[in-house]
Structures are given as structure tokens and as C-alpha cells.
Amino acid sequence: MTRVTRADLDSIPAYVPGRSSPRAIKLASNESTQGPLPGVAQAIADAAATANRYPDNTSATLIRALSESLDVPTESIATGCGSVGLCQELVQITCKDGDEVIYAWRSFEAYPVVTKVAGATPVPVPLTAEQGHDLDAMLAAITDRTRLIFVCTPNNPTGTALGREELERFLDAVPANIVVALDEAYFEYNRSGVDGIELARTRPNVVVLRTFSKAYGLAGIRVGYAVADPAIITALAKVHTTFSVSSVAQAAAIACLRARDELLQRTHVVVAERDRVRDALLAAGYDVSVTEANFVWLPLRDRSAAYGQASADAGVLIRPYATDGVRVTIGDAHENDAFLAFATSAAALQLAGIPTP
Ligand SMILES: *Cc1c(COP(=O)(O)O)cnc(C)c1O
């Protein structure tokens, strides 16, 4: 058959979402376990009543609310169809064919995809032995073709977060003509105190990405935002898919900001559960990275696929990543207990290569 699409698309893997099954416990996609608060659900319903009208393409009301809550000028904020949409737009505003995008690997699966789709060249830099970003190696990977660097902290899927000093040293060493995107999708779970927006205030090449999908519980609604110098925000608007942040998404996000304290309160429960799960796994003999996100990472390497399948067979869907490891989202206590029951079983310990007494 005659080819009608770009030949290079063959080398781009399709995005693989976490598995889902109505009967299983789903700890595979880093979602919030709780549905929207009543006020948020009402805002969604109200917005649905005017679904015949196009949304405000500038998200003006949402951006004003974000501006107040973050203490950032409205000119420094852009919204996107999830922060994945903003990742794609960042490649579009920085890269032409053959320009290079650096990111740690393993990290968020969208980075290689949005890079290749834009015709840019991915430059993945292996994580350290501790499963964190190797910032020195990332600096060493910069060439005169580098246009964009993604830094995911806390890192999906390993959970590791960068310290303020190492991050500042890195940002100060990156040439000013290269954009650095600090992807803080899990910011609300990070208890290290590092805040990318503070670091971006004085650095015009630094963009912070955040999302309503995780701690705010709107993964199904699709809305995220970027905070950056107005020059970057203006460029993002040029490549933005018109109307891609729906009126329902804008209304839901505004309602979440109003209920911010109540929603952020939920993260304390998740953080306590995360530490409980990690401690239990360590006690069972697992190697578990230090995590600042709403998930834990087990670097099981070539045992990952079999381990993920066995967990699914035991009724708990987790996320295996090729020959790197498995990521387990922190859910409600009973869900985490179900995973721990599997993880500490003789069969699972054997699959993980942990000697049993
Ligand atoms: C979940 C996630 C996002 C957010 O995606 P949305 O498009 O906002 O749902 C962005 N970056 C990372 C690293 C993530 O894990």
C-alpha cells in the first residue's frame, strides 16, 4: 500500500496508558482515588449547561485565579490541555527539525513522543544509581543544537526529587538560550520544600509545569498550566491548539482552586500512606527509591514484567516499565494493603529476587 503518512512515525511508540479493569484495584496511573468535591462536581455540571458555546480561549478567569493563588502575574501563566499538552507546545516553540531535547531516562513517557513528533532529536540521559537525575551528565549532553531540557521533579516513575542547591546550580549552568522545563506534576506531594516557581521568577529561560490531574483529582478533565517569563507564555499561545482547554475544564480548575485547602489536605494522607508502604517494602527486603510523589518505585529490572503480571493476577494493577522497574501508585489504605499482601507473599518475593527465610 502507498504510504500516506510520515515514515519517521514508525519509530514513535504509541503512548501506553496504565491498565484498567473494573474489578481490579488500579494503582497504575498516579490518579487521585477520590472523585471531585461536591462544589467541583457542581461547577462541572454548570459548565456543561453552556456546552453549546466555545470556551474562553485565553482561560482568563482561571489564569486570574492562578495568578492570585501563586502570586505570579497573569502574563506569566498559560493553560494547556493537561500539562502533556504544554510539553508538546514547549517542543513546538523551541525546536525545529534536528534540534535536540534533553531529558533524564527513565522519566515521563511523553517526553520522547512529543520530541519525535515535532521532528526534534531526543537526547535521553540515564538516571543515577539512586534513580535520580544525573544533572552533571545532562549538562555534559548540551550541544549547540540543544533547545529544551525537561527536568521532572519529583521524577515519574522513580519518585526522586531534586534538592534546591543542586537544581539551582544546574539552572545557573545551563546557557540562557536553552529552555528548561521543570515538570512538577507531583509538586503537591513533594515535602522537600523545593518550589520551581520560586526558581523561575528570576530565570527567564525556566518554565514550570503543573497540573490539575494528580493532587487536584481532575485527570479525566484535562487541564494543566505553565508559569514562565511572558515571552515564553506569548510563544506558547501561538502554537496552542485553539479551544483545547474546554469550558468544563476551566470551570473545574477554578472550583478546585477555591477548594484548594480541602484538596491539599488529602495529600497529607497520601504522603503518610506512601511512607508506610515504602517502610513495609523496605522491611520485606525490597530496594525502594526515596520518593516525594504519590507512588513508589521498585527497580526490579528484567524481573519487572513478570512481577507486574503477577500483581495484576493478584487483582492489583501496577505499572511495569520494560526492564527498568515497576511503579506502584499510592491509593487508599485498603488498596495499599492489597498490594503489600501481594508484595510480601513468598511468590512475589521470589519474582523480585528477594531471598526468603
Ligand atoms: C501525570 C503527569 C503529567 C500530567 O499530565 P496531564 O496531561 O496534566 O494529565 C505531566 N508530567 C508528568 C511527569 C506526569 O507524571
From TrEMBL:
Residues 24-340 form the Aminotransferase class I/classII large domain. The keyword Transferase applies. PROSITE patterns: AA_TRANSFER_CLASS_2 (PS00599). GO terms for molecular function: aromatic-amino-acid transaminase activity; histidinol-phosphate transaminase activity; pyridoxal phosphate binding. The modification N6-(pyridoxal phosphate)lysine is found at residue 214. Keywords: Aminotransferase, Pyridoxal phosphate, Transferase. It catalyses: an aromatic L-alpha-amino acid + 2-oxoglutarate = an aromatic oxo-acid + L-glutamate. It holds the Pfam family Aminotran_1_2. The keyword Transcription does not apply. Its cofactor is pyridoxal 5'-phosphate. GO terms for biological process: L-histidine biosynthetic process. Its EC number is 2.6.1.57. Belongs to the class-II pyridoxal-phosphate-dependent aminotransferase family. Aminotransferase that catalyzes the conversion of aromatic amino acids and 2-oxoglutarate into corresponding aromatic oxo acids and L-glutamate. Homodimer. This is Aromatic amino acid aminotransferase. It comes from Rhodococcus xishaensis. The gene is hisC.
